[in-house]
Amino acid sequence: MYTGDGRVNEHVGLMAMHTAFAREHNRIEEELHKLNPHWDGTRLFQESRRILIGEWQHLVYNEYLSIIFGPLITQQYGLNLHASGYHNGKESVFPKFPHTCIDHSSSHFVHDGKYIEQ
User: Is residue 96 a part of any domain in this protein?
Assistant: First the structure.
């Protein structure tokens, strides 16, 4: 998979997640195109992106964080989702947190097919 970031293929679980979200983005875009055939490609892409970000945030804040940190910590630091509305601020450090869960002793294949140990 190519995403513009060479680390996407570091971990099979991360690669699977990226693939699933890319496919979900395309599914959403197809549905939006059916509902709004007058939208151009840029609008379809951006609206699909917004919806997908909302899905991702829902999964992270409602399911993942409470498993990792527990409900008391997520509530103490205000990591629970609001009943309505959205946060339009800067991206937090959290999106990088899952990368720290990856075992860095894994083996890698580089783009030319060579096998390397890390």
Answer: yes
In this structure, what token pair is assigned to residue 12? Answer: 């099979």
Please answer whether residues 3 and 99 qualify as being in contact, where contact means their C-beta atoms are separated by less than 8 angstroms: no
d(CA 30, CA 24): 10
Distance, CA of 64 to CA of 70 (rounded, Å): 9
Report the C-alpha gap between 74 and 109 in whole angstroms. 37
Domains contained in the chain, number: 1
pTM: 0.64
Domain of residue 18, residue span = 6-84+91-117
Provide the 8-state DSSP code for 82.
P
Give the pLDDT confidence of 58-84 residue by residue, as tens digits: 888 778 877 888 878 877 877 776 667
